[in-house]
Amino acid sequence: MSLKNNLIKGNYSPPGDKSISHRIIILGSQTLGKTKITNLLDSEDVLNTVKAMKKLGSNIKKVKKSYIVYGIPPGGLFNPKSKLDFGNSGTGIRLIAGLISSNNIKAVLIGDRSLSSRPMKRVTEHLKKIGSIFILKRNNFLPMKIIGSPNPIPLNYNITIPSAQIKSSIMLSGLNTLGKIKIKEYASTRDHTERMLKTMGYNINFKVKGKFRYIEMKSNKELKPLNYIVAGDPSSAAFMITAACLKKGSKLLVKNILYNPTRIGFLKTLKKMGANITIKNKKKLYNETVADIYVNQKKSLRSVDIYSSEIPSQVDEIPILSIAASFATGTTIFRGLKELTVKESNRLLLIYKNLLNIGVKCSIKKFDLHIHGNSNLKPGGSTIEHNNDHRILMAFYISNMICLKNNKINDKSCVKTSYPRFFSDLKKLLN
Fold first, then answer.
1. Which pTM value belongs to this model?
2. Structural domain span for residue 335
3. Which residues, other chains included, contact 285 with Cβ-Cβ below 8 Å and sequence gap of 6+?
4. Is 42 a residue of the active site?
5. 52 phi and psi, to 5 degrees?
6. Are 39 and 24 in contact (CB under 8 A)?
7. Catalytic pick from 112, 191, 316, 425?
8. For range 276-287, the mean pLDDT
9. For a tag on the chain, would you pick the N or C end, based on fewer CB atoms within 10 A?
10. What is the radius of gyration, based on Cα positions, of the chain?
11. Number of folded domains in the chain?
12. Does a structural domain hold residue 223?
């Protein structure tokens, strides 16, 4: 598929949001009733969460294009008969680890080679405080055996690492913890779990005060089942939106995208770079904001300086934003990218190496990435090193729009992790 001489044009509905999909499966399983989920993301990551919740006792069925979750109440998890295999899903394994930790059961959690190299201590060091036991191999890496606490202790938590997975794992442990749990975040992160719990009638309050975010939840043992429609994933849509921004004359309408303030940092960055982006039809859906995004690109992009405090709201989009920065006029600096080193791959290093290979001048200073962009076509013709990281692969596939020679990408199967229809969606928009 050639991208160089094409514009991005048309209407586009991104797949269901991955973060939301994980959470509604898990929380739907903790209700006393039936939860119907429409537009669930059918990716490998999410389906591994579905399989794990089935092994823990939840009855989950796919009926036509929807998923039906028959819930089991908090405290009702079963001892799984086999290991819970999460494949590549860091979100799934960390959230469900939190859920298991306050249930009187035992489980062994495993993952693929990539997930087995990602740190688990950042989550387990908080969860073990409630009285659960975690046994990990090789210095806090998978496989992980969890012995859930029969009497979990409600605690106050200070979270210094900006991670929605850590925060959400604690909140999920709280579903079966009698008493009040308090969480203090030192940087705002994705708040889907809080919003979803609120929508399901749980006793939870959250607010931002100064530079801190405070969450307080009190166990009330009851979650309300929902008929839930999963909004479009902004992290998936970011590839198509950025592709449209790279080509003057592109016109793209993205429908029903999740417009949560903790997820739209990349849109703000693209606007700063000179992208002509309009937000339309904003509405509320299950305590989340959903909107349409219109791109009508008329000029080249310019460089920006992105500070570390801005990274959490666009951490998954840094790979594709690095492609935008390569095509922008001037030097773009992404500051404070340490979190990228513990994703599905060392994304910071892979971005740097691949940019150099396609002809982009760039450098890393501590955890800051400096990209010296210009609007001229890059040489390309390189073999992209993606280490089975779906976001690296998709970002550098889009780079073929700005390269004289196509970059070769071996084994494209890892897009199944988050965006199985990436290539077909992109093909439909090429004009």
1. 0.96
2. 9-15+231-429
3. 229, 231
4. no
5. -65, -45
6. no
7. 316
8. 97
9. N
10. 21
11. 2
12. no
